[in-house]
Specification:
It is built from 6 helices and 6 strands, in the order H-E-E-H-E-H-H-E-E-E-H-H. The chain is α/β, with parallel strands linked by helices. Strand 5 and strand 6 form a beta hairpin. The chain is globular. 26% of the residues are buried.
C-alpha cells in the first residue's frame, strides 16, 4: 500500500511543486516607456505579496529587473535564477482602463500552469494588484490557509507611505 501511495505521488504528469519563483518584469505593451511605472509597479507589488507565502522563495527586484525588456527563454532564466516557476505578464493602458495578462510558467518544461487576463479602470489598479496576487497565491499554494491568503492579499493592498521627517 505504501508503494502504491508513493507511485501515485510520484506519477508522471503530476504538477511540479513550486518552491521558488521569479516575477519577471511585466512588459509595457505599448513599448513607448511612458507606462513603465504601471508595469514596474505591478511587478514590484507581486514580488512583495508573494514573498509572504510560507516556504516560497521569491527572487528580489534586483535579481529580476535585469531581464526587463529582454527576450525570455524560460528554461535558461529559470536555471540562472534557480527557480521552479516564473510569473510573466504584460500591461496595456487603454485610456481610463488598464488590461493586464499574467501567466505562471513551469521552468522544467515551459508549460503554462495558470494564466488570466484582467481589465479594470485605471483608478482600480491597487485592487487589481490584490486580485492578481490572490489568484497567483491560490494557484501556487492551493492548500494555503484562509488567514495566510488574507495576509498575501492584504500585503498587495498596503500602500507605502513616505517616512515622516520628525
Amino acid at each position: 500500500m505504501l508503494a502504491a501511495g508513493a507511485a501515485w505521488y510520484l506519477r508522471p504528469g503530476r504538477p511540479p511543486e513550486i518552491d521558488s519563483i521569479a516575477v519577471i518584469p511585466f512588459t509595457d505593451a505599448r513599448g513607448d516607456g511612458e507606462s513603465d511605472y504601471l508595469s514596474d509597479g505591478m511587478t514590484e507589488s507581486l514580488i512583495d505579496s508573494l514573498a509572504h507565502l510560507p516556504q516560497l522563495k521569491v527572487k528580489s527586484r534586483q535579481s529580476v529587473f535585469r531581464y526587463k525588456g529582454r527576450d525570455i527563454d524560460v528554461r535558461k532564466i529559470g536555471r540562472e535564477l534557480g527557480v521552479t516557476a516564473l510569473v510573466m505578464g504584460r500591461v496595456v493602458p487603454r485610456g481610463d482602463r488598464v488590461d493586464v495578462s499574467a501567466e505562471l510558467i513551469s521552468v522544467g518544461d515551459s508549460t503554462a500552469l495558470w494564466g488570466q487576463q484582467y481589465s479594470r479602470k485605471s483608478v482600480d489598479i491597487i485592487p487589481l494588484q490584490q486580485e492578481i496576487a490572490g489568484d497567483l497565491a491560490a494557484r501556487i499554494r492551493s492548500k494555503l490557509s484562509r488567514s495566510k491568503m488574507r495576509q498575501v492579499v492584504k500585503q498587495a493592498h498596503r500602500i507605502r507611505r513616505p517616512l515622516s521627517s520628525t
